[in-house]
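Duplicate of #3305? Posting structure anyway:
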């Protein structure tokens, strides 16, 4: 497994992952019918960096890193991670999150914050907790899950400096 910075050509291989995750509607607050053009802006153009996790030349996962807030909050980054449905359960999200924390430190960030984690995304909540993130906020019924209705969204945070 190799994690590297994405190039413009990688979006063709990221798009199937993004579209599957967005269409499911159970982990991200993106519109379930997000267009390719919207996804390109969200995942490639807006972040500071976008990376891909690949194996044998096939993109199995992707993540972005960006500054969470401007000005006095620019020492905190935000990341988003997506894994291809067929590649789940292989530790890719763990590898990408660990990689993103090292990259965040290299880029000068002092902390990482996940702004809107669906509380029903138990795999992610368990993983982020295991990797040292604390739940610092709960937004009651802020996420509209396609099957479960309104559920809480969590704000998770980790100070990256020793």
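Output from current build:
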């Amino acid at each position: 497994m190799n994690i590297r910075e994405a190039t413009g050509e990688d979006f063709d291989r990221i798009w199937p992952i993004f579209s599957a995750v967005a269409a499911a509607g159970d982990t991200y607050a993106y519109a379930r019918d997000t267009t390719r053009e919207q996804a390109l802006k969200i995942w490639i153009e807006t972040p500071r960096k976008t990376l891909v996790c690949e194996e044998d030349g096939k993109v199995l996962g992707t993540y972005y890193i960006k500054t969470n807030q401007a000005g006095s909050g620019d020492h905190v980054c935000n990341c988003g991670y997506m894994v291809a449905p067929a590649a789940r359960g292989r530790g890719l999200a763990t590898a990408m999150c660990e990689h993103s924390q090292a990259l965040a430190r290299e880029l000068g960030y002092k902390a990482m914050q996940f702004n809107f984690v669906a509380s029903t995304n138990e795999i992610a909540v368990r993983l982020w907790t295991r990797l040292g993130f604390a739940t610092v906020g709960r937004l009651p019924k802020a996420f509209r899950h396609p099957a479960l209705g309104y559920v809480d969204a969590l704000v998770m945070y980790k100070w990256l400096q020793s």
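Confirmed duplicate; merging threads. The chain has one domain: 2-159. The longest helix spans residues 92-106.
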